[in-house]
Amino acid sequence: MPEDIILDDVSPSIESVRRWGYDERLLFIEQDEDLILHELRYVPILLELARDRHCPKRDYALNIIHYYSQLTVLLQDRALARAIVGFADSVEREDDDGVRRWVTFFRRIFSQLTAPHTLDDDSAMELASDLLAGPYSSRSLERTGRVLSGFTEIRAYCGSYEAFLYVHLQRGIWRYSRHYPLEHIVA
User: Fold this and answer.
1) Rounded distance, CA 47 to CA 130, Å?
2) Are the C-beta atoms of residues 112 and 123 closer than 8 Å to each other?
3) Whose CA is closest to 48, among 10, 87, 101?
4) Cα 172 from chain centroid?
5) Which pLDDT tens digit goes with each residue over 66-113?
């Protein structure tokens, strides 16, 4: 089997991304390649690749869009999330199941970001699952039982990874942390 081709390109052009999508051996960098494509300018080409049934990296392209949009909402970047909505609008009627699932997923979490509504315990766990795990992650979630100033602590973990989502059930808002305890997040 031929070896992978590593371009060592941390800022690929749109045409390079298109070429990458159709060449299974082509890599931009050796590790965390998906993260260099976490930019708004790459969303259209990634959607193009994700919608092409002949693209060998179509599932990977969709995974990248999914994770990028998930992080955008998790980190509450409203301006960037609104820009991503425009791309979701452009593919909303797509006949591809994966793309439709992404649009539905993104609209759900975007809605909670832009029009927060009261959550019960189950919907808070669903929100935590959407924001901290999603369909492409094997992270486990648990309610820690800690509550401060109305924020309930939910822990996501997998191996050495650990993150926390603090959800205010009445207000429908959240805070995210990888490093600080609840007391510093809601103070």
Assistant:
1) 20
2) no
3) 87
4) 19
5) 999 999 999 999 999 999 999 999 887 878 899 999 999 999 999 999
Rg (CA), the chain: 18
Q: Which two three-digit tokens encode residue 182?
A: 């609840």
CB 20 within 8 A of CB 49: no
Q: Which stretches within the chain are classed as H helix?
A: 14-22, 33-36, 43-51, 58-74, 78-90, 97-114, 121-132, 182-185
Q: What are the φ and ψ backbone dihedral angles of 153, each rounded to 5 degrees?
A: -90, 130
SS3 letters across 98-152: HHHHHHHHHHHHHHHHHCCCCCCHHHHHHHHHHHHCCCCCCCEEEEEEEEECCEE
Number of other CB atoms surrounding residue 112 within 10 Å: 20
Letter for the amino acid at 128?
A: A
**150 HSE (CA, 13 A, CB side):** 10
Residue pair 4/25 in contact (Cβ under 8 Å)? The answer is yes
Question: pLDDT per residue over 136-147, tens digit each?
Answer: 778 899 999 999
Residues 142, 146, 150, 156: what is their CA dihedral angle, to the nearest 10 degrees?
A: -30
Specify the pTM. 0.90
Q: In this structure, which amino acid lies at residue 45?
A: I
